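Table 4 source record.
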Amino acid sequence: MASVILSFPTLHGLRIFTQKLLWTKRGVRLVSGGVAKIEKVLIANRGEIACRVMRTAKKMGVRSVAVYSDADRHSMHVAMADEAYHIGPPPSQQSYLNMEKVLEVAKKSGSHAVHPGYGFLSENTEFAEACKQNGIIFIGPPSSAIRDMGIKSTSKHIMSAAGVPIIGGYHGDDQSNERLQAEAEKIGYPVMIKAVRGGGGKGMRIARSNSDFLEQLESARREAIKSFNDDVMLIEKFVEDPRHVEVQVFGDMHGNAVYLFERDCSVQRRHQKIIEEAPGPGISAEVRRKLGEAAVRAAKAVNYVGAGTVEFIMDSQHNFYFMEMNTRLQVEHPVSEMITDTDLVEWQLRVAAGERLPLLQDDIMLRGHSFEARIYAEDPNNDFLPGAGPLLHLSTPPPDQHTRIETGVREGDEVSAHYDPMIAKLVVWGEDRSAALKKLRYCLRQYNIVGLSTNIDFLLNLSGHPQFEEGNVSTSFIPQHYTDLFPTPEAPSGMSVCQATLGLLLQERKHTKAFTGSSADPFSPFGSSSGWRLNTHFCRSMTLQLGNNKVDVVITYNKDGSYTMQLGDDTFHVTGELETDGGASFLRCSVNGVKSRPKLVIVEDTVHLFSTEGRADMSVPVPKYLAAVSGSGTQGGAVAPMTGTIEKVLVKAGDVVNLGDPLMVMIAMKMEHTIRAPKSGVIKKVFFSEGAQANRHAPLVELEEEGGADEETA
């Protein structure tokens, strides 16, 4: 066996850290300073974070082991792993949250370590302890740090003693409704209700008055039980329009701790981040240093080891207060990697094995600016309601040194109703904030998805907003600029209608040519796609559905292969051909002399056009008699918005309800949804009981007007 030296250069070459390594047949075994060996790591997670950890593990010569539920049997992280083990049915409580099954796989596979990713078991004290007891390295902090920082009331006391600024509130043991409501009144509304073991926006509600406090408290408790199996709450003063600024910290087993600067994660919906950037806009070098030093004090106060994030709320004067510490790798860690030229997963693996930090504080340099946009399967125009289903088409901007696509799905994969609806994280870097923002918008336009509603257009509106461009962000950004961020949809231009029509014609011609080529009768009338004859020209009409509107297009086939298209009083001269590039179809066309090359995706009778100017979707409408047969009509009223579990039934037959009254609470896509009455009336029938599974669009409750006049499904 031969010893080799590996170097770890910093971005500016200021320091070289070397570590003796001993190569074995199965991977790299660290041998200096009594460090442990990690030759095989189990990733106790799924989706993009599992894929992210595997990429670094492969780079380091460490074998990766995946676990998967029934729903993830054919998923990307399973395909990427060196080994993969089934651990249960789709519900996370029976699979990814089942500690016994995960540990059983770790032992069976001979894994030296477990990387928990984020979510699931990543901040579970019992799991970290169980790994230790079974002689398996937990790639994370000591269980004591997870425990102390996971209970928000405890963490506040520790931070206060360490000299970290905190915000006042109630963190007491008396959890009665009366005491919590009294404390809220004492603090003064609005207040934030938080689960003490919360995170990721779960178990968190804002009460703005005494009248809605109990409803918000009960909702937070239900979600906390579901997510953390603990409904203990704390109450804090809610700071209006704050910024959410967090600091990436890293510690080792030798007493070293550093910060890798701050991230701004202010722009959120449902208390969950949607776009992040590093460093924070408008933050001075002095405030940046104070933030970092406070975060390191927080980490050292709990003897922190590994990657962690200290979260602060910051007011308009850049005063900051400790909010919580996430004792794991964060979703948005790539932006910190981009501005410091580091691989934090590699740091995690090395520190977990006992190595010292590759860099000390003076060696960590900040360069440029980075954005991360979270691409979700959700409908921003319907209160960001998450969705599930297959990705019929998926194409991304090409990844490069300054563009990262962090994802766990491929075209054809399904976004499962059982897990988080995040499709990917788009991460970009630029020399400064303006350059990075321009790069982000350019790449968002190249992220094309068909099959599910996504937030891509919303992210484009957000990143192009003048106030966002100026860096004037806060947690209230979306409601403050709602009108600008949710503009009235514009009808596709005449050029887009012509492009869509041309796409359908060329697709039809392609299919016709294939038919005639395989037919015994090449002159069959069924092999013609040239329309009907009018004054020596072939003509036809086509109707396209544009949202709720229809447009009629009269098409004239010209002898030179071009088309004349009439849209009302407007006439367009159109030419073009289909092209294939890298498996994607493009429409090289000219409309009234203006040339363009939009991407073309046709699914059944719907045309999806993607260009640098945006997206347009048009379809050939289904005849009414076919719509009736296919069941595309709806009965009206609110139904199950997606497949999920009925958590709580709030009404029974005979109850009188008013418009907007809560009827049921549903859990779907890791979120709680309150189903409300679409009108006033009397409950005639309740179709589901608590704990039952309801499919998307299933009627939940039957309503009738008082007196039995008419009925409606809710």
